[in-house]
């Protein structure tokens, strides 16, 4: 009976629980599954119940890993003491070369904590009594976290009242929230080792916000830091290079562009007559088709500078149309240095400065081309 | 008229400054009269007239150019109801050479060359018209490439066994030659007797017109008639009674390869064709009393890459050696002034109908897209 109780409790821990009926008599404890929901199919490793790997097992794996690391270092002739994970990866790639495309399918040797995912340990003792006081809420870590955070908030408010009572001005040093973000829901789930709902997550974030925005919130900075991450890659404003001058005193600027598989580099000179040279060949000879020349004309015509610049281009790869598109992009980028910021914005909105992302689509098996299917035959 | 032209010249001298200044807004009418206006087709065009168009009366066109003008230009003539040529530097250069040439010396050969579509054939036509006005005898072969390719009938020559005749081409050329040089045909007399067949022969002293009639009537012997005409002219021109201008378009065809095949599928080399053989003899500079003006052409040439335009590339070693001491004349794309002139001509003739084509921006666009190449500009302006 106790075992059956335990199983039921375990099942009850999942959302959308499966309905289990203990059928049969007292002797045979067969459990018959009547109904499950889709949520139950999704494998939540962290919250999948008591751990499948015992602590002792993990410890043994770690010992074996360290031993194996030393052996590997010896094999490769390097110092076992200073053998890092990168060295291990390189050694494994050397000893077991694999042609598989997926990196995760190749042979790897990593620390057991990376391989065996963290799981929740068994939450109750031998007598069946749970350790944590919030166990019966179902989401014990979440509620304990909310409890702690609210405690901090009360702390802050108490401190604030104290400061107000002493008539001291509240500290206005706000932590800069610009370069940081809160944990995402998945990150929080990984941290707490149990499933959350969107509502829970938003409530937690609201609480954190309240904590941060209240004055004297800096007291709990350490606590808050645990839940925020830095955003390293900021949006970079595109820097427009200033004009350079060559030996004759003529101003020029360079630009690079690409389209499909063509790459073009372009030098646009000022005080010109509209002469264009591509790979050392005159533009009329290199692009006999009018359409390509129209593409080259477009940036200049847009800025009303048709006959005023000379251009020297080098282009490689692709076909005639993609080479023309690449030169167009490169010349538009080069012209940014000659032109006011407003016009640069106009160019951007006209689509002259955007790289065309269209490339040839991959052919799929079972089809004749990327989209074209084989001729359908009725029989 | 003289003072009028003086005035024009004075205004023209100040033209470059006018054209350079952007603030000066000349009305279309003044631009027309200053830059483009139709000059009367006098024969004395000088550098002052560079960039301007002059018109040829239509009857003269039919008389002088029965077969010389490019096809697109002929269509333009029909559309505009007038034939206007632009006076350009290469043509003026040739005029000075021709004026100062000493006709006692052997004939000088001029080779007009240039990239595709820059106006070589038109320059040649200008020179032909100039010389025709001056009263020269003009031997104008419109396109020598027509003689070495796409020939439907090849006959074995009766005169020489190993040569091949081309009756169709020869007869068409004779017809055009007749229309262009009527009065000369009566003046020149044959200097020996020619036997065409069992029953036909031309006595000595008969006018050349009879030889031409013979060639036209008896198509089988047309090529030989052409040969006779060329020989007679060559023999008699040094006497000084008339000047001869040999104008050949696409002269590189004479020394290239042909696409013709004999009955046994062996390729024909140019020397084996009567017409080419006789023409080559004409191109030698062993006669005096005239000039030879030729054009290289890649467009109709056989087995030559499309980027070739220099004489030694298109003529090959054989041709270059044969033509060796020649005066090359390069025909470039339009200069700024010439481009403006052409643009205003089209505008004046209401050929450019698109509103944007009539603006400054449109002109710049046309200049960019055509690369100042005359042919490209003409093709671009067509749909506008």
TrEMBL record, chain A:
It is found in: Mitochondrion. GO terms for biological process: translation. Pfam families: Ribosomal_S9. Keywords: Mitochondrion, Ribonucleoprotein, Ribosomal protein, Transit peptide. Residues 358-379 are annotated as: Disordered. InterPro entries: Ribosomal_Su5_D2-typ_SF, Ribosomal_uS9, Ribosomal_uS9_CS, Ribsml_uS5_D2-typ_fold_subgr. GO terms for cellular component: mitochondrial inner membrane; mitochondrial small ribosomal subunit. GO terms for molecular function: RNA binding; structural constituent of ribosome. Its main location: mitochondrion. It comes from the Eukaryota. Belongs to the universal ribosomal protein uS9 family. This is Small ribosomal subunit protein uS9m.
TrEMBL record, chain B:
Pfam families: DAP3. The keyword Cell wall biogenesis/degradation does not apply. GO terms for biological process: apoptotic process. SUPFAM superfamilies: P-loop containing nucleoside triphosphate hydrolases. One of its GO terms (cellular component) is mitochondrial small ribosomal subunit. Keywords: Mitochondrion, Ribonucleoprotein, Ribosomal protein, Transit peptide. It comes from the Eukaryota. It is found in: Mitochondrion. The keyword Ribosomal protein applies. Transmembrane segments: none annotated. Its main location: mitochondrion. One of its GO terms (molecular function) is structural constituent of ribosome. PANTHER family: MITOCHONDRIAL 28S RIBOSOMAL PROTEIN S29 (PTHR12810), SMALL RIBOSOMAL SUBUNIT PROTEIN MS29 (PTHR12810:SF0). Belongs to the mitochondrion-specific ribosomal protein mS29 family. This is Small ribosomal subunit protein mS29.
């Amino acid at each position: 009976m106790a075992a059956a109780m335990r199983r039921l409790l375990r099942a009850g821990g999942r959302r959308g629980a499966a309905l289990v009926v203990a059928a049969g008599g007292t002797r045979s404890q067969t459990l018959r599954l009547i109904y499950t929901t889709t949520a139950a199919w999704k494998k939540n490793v962290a919250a999948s119940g008591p751990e499948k790997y015992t602590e002792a097992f993990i410890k043994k794996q770690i010992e074996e890993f360290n031993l194996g690391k030393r052996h590997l270092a010896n094999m490769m002739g390097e110092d076992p003491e200073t053998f890092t994970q990168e060295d291990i990866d390189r050694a494994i790639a050397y000893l077991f070369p694999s042609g598989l495309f997926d990196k995760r399918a190749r042979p790897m040797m990593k620390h057991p904590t990376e391989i065996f995912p963290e799981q929740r340990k068994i939450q109750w003792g031998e007598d069946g009594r749970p350790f944590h006081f919030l166990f019966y809420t179902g989401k014990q870590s979440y509620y304990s976290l909310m409890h702690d955070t609210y405690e901090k908030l009360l702390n802050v408010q108490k401190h604030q009242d104290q400061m107000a009572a002493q008539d001291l001005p509240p500290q206005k040093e706000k932590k800069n929230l610009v370069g940081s973000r809160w944990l995402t829901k998945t990150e929080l789930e990984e941290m707490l080792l149990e499933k959350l709902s969107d509502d829970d997550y938003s409530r937690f974030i609201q609480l954190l916000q309240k904590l941060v925005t209240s004055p004297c919130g800096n007291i709990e900075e350490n606590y808050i830091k645990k839940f925020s991450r830095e955003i390293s890659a900021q949006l970079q404003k595109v820097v427009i290079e200033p004009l350079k001058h060559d030996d004759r005193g003529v101003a020029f600027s360079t630009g690079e562009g690409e389209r499909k598989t063509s790459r073009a580099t372009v030098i646009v000179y000022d005080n010109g007559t509209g002469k264009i040279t591509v790979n050392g060949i005159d533009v009329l000879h290199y692009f006999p088709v009018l359409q390509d020349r129209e593409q080259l004309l477009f940036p200049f015509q847009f800025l009303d500078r048709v006959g005023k610049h000379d251009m020297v281009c080098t282009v490689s790869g692709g076909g005639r149309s993609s080479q023309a598109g690449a030169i167009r992009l490169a010349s538009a980028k080069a012209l940014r240095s000659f032109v006011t910021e407003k016009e640069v914005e106009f160019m951007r909105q006209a689509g002259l400065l955007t790289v065309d992302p269209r490339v040839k689509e991959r052919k799929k098996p079972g089809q004749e081309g990327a989209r074209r299917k084989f001729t359908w035959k009725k029989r | 008229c003289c003072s009028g032209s003086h005035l024009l010249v004075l205004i023209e001298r100040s033209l470059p400054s006018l054209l350079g200044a952007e603030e000066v807004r000349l009305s279309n009418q003044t631009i027309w009269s200053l830059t483009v206006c139709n000059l009367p087709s006098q024969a004395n065009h000088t550098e002052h007239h560079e960039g301007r168009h002059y018109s040829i009366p239509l009857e003269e066109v039919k008389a002088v150019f029965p077969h010389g003008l490019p096809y697109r230009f002929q269509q333009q003539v029909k559309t505009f109801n007038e034939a206007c040529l632009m006076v350009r530097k290469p043509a003026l250069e040739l005029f000075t050479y021709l004026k100062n040439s000493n006709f006692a010396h052997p004939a000088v050969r001029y080779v007009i060359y240039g990239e595709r579509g820059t106006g070589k054939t038109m320059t040649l036509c200008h020179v032909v018209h100039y010389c025709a006005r001056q009263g020269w005898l003009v031997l104008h072969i419109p396109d020598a490439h027509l003689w070495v390719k796409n020939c439907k009938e090849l006959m074995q020559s009766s005169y020489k066994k190993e040569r091949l005749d081309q009756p169709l081409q020869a007869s068409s050329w004779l017809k055009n030659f007749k229309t262009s040089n009527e009065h000369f045909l009566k003046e020149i007399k044959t200097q020996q007797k020619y036997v065409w067949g069992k029953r036909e022969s031309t006595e000595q002293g008969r006018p050349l017109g009879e030889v031409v009639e013979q060639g036209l009537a008896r198509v089988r012997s047309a090529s030989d008639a052409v040969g006779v005409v060329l020989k007679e002219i060559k023999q008699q021109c040094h006497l000084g009674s008339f000047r001869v201008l040999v104008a050949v378009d696409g002269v590189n065809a004479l020394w290239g390869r042909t696409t013709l095949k004999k009955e046994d599928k062996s390729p024909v080399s140019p020397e084996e064709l009567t017409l080419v053989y006789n023409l080559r003899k004409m191109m030698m500079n062993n006669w005096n009393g005239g000039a030879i003006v030729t054009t290289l052409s890649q467009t109709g040439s056989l087995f030559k890459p499309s980027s070739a335009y220099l004489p030694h590339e298109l003529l090959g070693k054989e041709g270059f050696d044969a033509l060796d001491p020649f005066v090359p004349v390069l025909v470039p794309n339009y200069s700024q002034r010439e481009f403006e002139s052409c643009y205003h001509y089209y505008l004046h003739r209401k050929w450019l109908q698109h509103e944007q084509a009539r603006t400054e921006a449109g002109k710049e666009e046309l200049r960019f897209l055509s690369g100042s190449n005359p042919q490209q500009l003409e093709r671009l302006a067509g749909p506008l």
